[in-house]
Design goal:
This protein is of the alpha+beta class. It has 2 domains: 80 residues; 106 residues, Alpha-Beta Plaits, CATH 3.30.70. It has 4 helices and 5 strands; from the N terminus they run αααβββαββ.
Length: 197
């Protein structure tokens, strides 16, 4: 009898209708949204994996910049400091003068050396005395002649310090004449700077 009461009153069909409406709304409205949410979660997981990989690469790059990259950068900075982009003759002469004072060189004289004979066999005076000679790989050479009196020890210390100077200096020629109380030395140096582009 109780089952007739539900049918008569219409509660069972209403309850079944509501259940069917809930199931239909789930499949029609919520399921696509849930699929979208699932795909967005998968996309977020993929992006998180990419970010994690990028962070690993960043760590490796930072580690390598401390290692090999930093060494190359330091070498480039050293090259740019030792071979400046301009002749900067004042700073160069000041540095050579400091070395001369530090090593007690007497009767110190510095002049511009005549330009070297070119590889084609040209006349060194044709370019004019002290004209910078062009060199390989974009560097320009300027030659200077130093004359001074000193003891053997001071001369040796001065010659040892030249390659360790702030600027790239190369010794082209050394001439030493012994006197009774000291030696008279003549040194030809080359200073380098980068050619303007």
């Amino acid at each position: 009898m109780s089952s007739r009461w539900y049918r008569k009153e219409g509660i069972l069909p209403v309850a079944l209708g509501l259940a069917a409406l809930g199931a239909a709304s789930y499949f029609l409205l919520f399921a696509p949204e849930l699929r979208t949410i699932g795909s967005l979660r998968a996309e977020i997981a993929a992006k998180d994996a990419e970010v994690e990989e990028a962070m690993k690469l960043r760590t490796e790059v930072a580690r390598s910049s401390v290692g090999e990259g930093a060494r190359w950068e330091e070498r480039i900075r050293t090259w740019e400091r030792r071979v400046p982009s301009t002749p900067n003759t004042e700073a160069l002469l000041a540095e050579i003068g400091e070395m001369a004072v530090r090593h007690n060189l007497k009767a110190f004289g510095l002049t511009v050396a005549p330009a070297a004979v070119s590889a084609q066999g040209g006349d060194p005076t044709a370019a004019g005395a002290g004209a910078p000679a062009q060199a390989k790989e974009g560097a320009v050479e300027s030659r200077f002649r130093l004359t001074f009196r000193s003891t053997y020890r001071d001369l040796a210390e001065f010659l040892d310090e030249i390659p360790r100077g702030r600027r790239l200096l190369t010794i082209r020629a050394v001439s030493v004449k012994e006197k009774a109380d000291a030696m008279v030395a003549e040194i030809e140096l080359s200073a380098w700077h980068r050619r303007g582009r």
